[in-house]
Amino acid sequence: MEKVLALLLIALAVVYAVPGPRGIIINLENGELCVNSAQCKSKCCRHDTLLSLARCSPKASENSECSAKTLYGVYKKCPCERGLTCEGDKTIVGSITNTNFGICHDAGRSRE
């Protein structure tokens, strides 16, 4: 009985020593390697060139370059932050060739 109790206490100590829920496959931080945007906390997995490794990146801010959508789950430019819209090419050809870039604009502001 003493061995079981000691084993239980050791198991509890190990459980409490483990850090919070850090992603290994999902819930990845910016800068970590990814294969799909669904893995990232920011929901943006991007690469600079076709041969470069994709990494989680922050979403595009106002007046930054953006991609409207992707068919592959990996962006060349990240989509806009919440409340902004990506004004640019939204064609299926742009999505296939990953050239559907635009600029993030505030959806709430009126255009003048």
How many β strands by DSSP?
Answer: 5
What's the level 1 CATH class? Answer: Mainly Beta
In the sheet with the most strands, the strands line up as: 3-5-4
Largest sheet, if any? 3 strands, antiparallel
Give the CATH architecture: Ribbon
- Bulk shape: elongated
Rg, Å, rounded: 21 Å
C-alpha termini separation: 78 Å
The succession of helices and strands, N to C, reads HEEEEHE
Multimeric state of these chains? single chain
Mean pLDDT: 81
Share of helical residues: 10-25%
Taken as a percent bin, the fraction of beta residues is: 15-25%
CATH topology value? Lipase, subunit A
Number of helices: 2
Features:
112 residues, alpha+beta, Lipase, subunit A, three-stranded antiparallel beta sheet, Colipase_C, Colipase isoform X1
Word description of this protein:
- The protein has 112 residues and is of the alpha+beta class.
- It contains two helices and five strands.
- Strands 3-5-4 form a three-stranded antiparallel beta sheet, with no helix packed on it. Strands 1-2 form a two-stranded antiparallel ribbon.
- Strand 1 and strand 2 form a beta hairpin.
- The longest helix is centred in the N-terminal third of the chain and has 16 residues.
- 21% of the residues are buried.
In short:
By secondary structure, the protein is α+β, with helices and mostly antiparallel strands.
